[in-house]
Amino acid sequence: MARGFNKVILMGNLARDPEIRYTVDKRAWARFTIAVNRQWKGRNGELQSSADFIPIVVWGPQAEHCERYLRKGQAVLVEGRLQVRNYEDKAGTRRYVTEVAAQSVNFVGSRRDEGSGFSKDSASSNDLGSIRDKGFGGEDFPLDFSEMDGMNNDGDDGDADIPF
Question: Which domains does the chain possess?
Answer without folding.
Answer: 8-109 (2.40.50.140), 119-150 (no CATH)
